[in-house]
Amino acid sequence: MINAHVRAAIDAGMTCDITTTGRSSGEPRRIEIWYFVIDGEIYLTGTPGRRDWLANLRAHPHLTLHVKEGAHADLAATAEEITDPAERRRIMDRVREREAWYVEQGHSLDHWVAGSPLVHVVLDG
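Request: output the structure for the sequence above.
Response:
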């Protein structure tokens, strides 16, 4: 269980780091990434295109979510890629409602749904 302070920081934040395991190297790979909390669940996404972090998570779904806004915590988690088109549309629409930057990129919602990475982060424990 995470404490209330860390949970509040996750809910209020948008930027974190994640550490994945390299799909070929097996080495840890840490990057900064945006995340979104939708209906209490954590999602990683980005603009349409290929992502090394997603390829790493497909090969090795365990990751560490590094909370760094409002609190500091390193949380073990498991990635679940969202592939169902209806669920992708629902979540991507909510992300676009919350963050105007995504809309300003000029991609239609259909393009986001078809080509963007989308991962549900399930905190372990």
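The mean pLDDT is 93.
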